[in-house]
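Handout, tutorial session.
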Amino acid sequence: MPSIRFFSRGRTESQRGFVLVIALVLAILYFMLMTLIMIDSSRAQGEAQRYRARVVAAALAENAAELACAQMVTLPSGVGQLQDDQGRMYGTYRRLGSNPSGTGPPSDARFEVMGEADTKGVLNQHATVFLEGHFNGNEVHIDFSRHSQ
């Protein structure tokens, strides 16, 4: 094993440029990685905002349908609308008349409910809810539902 007195700085001069190049390459790779992480996080944030807007729009549309049906057993039609910090909702309810299958009471047995909503905020989203059903006395039965955005 050579002693420390045989160590010469002259031998390391050729390696200094190599170490500098490696340090620069590592710094560039590090900043590229940070850039990719920032791009991915902004994409994930955009997806999260879109998902939240869709969920809020669907919930508002269902609330609009429920608001329109507040007294559906006693009234032949209804309208409900409301606007708040989340967005705007509008719902309609109407009775269609007798059940075409012949089952149940002969009149005022079928109904339709439509709910619409638009969200506020960074991303605006629109959603609708459509319900079709019938009464069996004072019991409400939903036969068909369609949710869209």
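The second record follows below. Compare its token runs with those of the first.
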Amino acid sequence: MTLYQRVATANPKGAKSVINQFGYEIRTNNLAQALKMLVSSEGEPALRAIVDIHPDKELILECCGNDTSSITKENSSVAKNNNQEMYLNAVGQQMTEAQKSTQLTNTFLIASTFIILTALILKN
């Protein structure tokens, strides 16, 4: 069961409220899918709002401790690996700045090739 399914099942009024809070209307019967779409379009603020209405929030905080500074320290150590900034690509794999640059260069070369091929085809 995903976070969205858990919140939608246990707290449907809260889920609808969060969606409306961000200025969206629910156009589907699947409230979990609507929450997922909200997070994909609004990002972290929407995710935090959903976590705030999670029915097991108190239990999770009790088990993990209410100290968010350790979470912040852990995230910063994951984000930097040997003083290199790490990025996540589309499939969630971490990339260094050099890998990101290489990927952008490859993408640019492929796009340029398609543009040139299209121009040659249209010219003939």
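Points raised in discussion: The chain has two domains: 3-66, 83-123.
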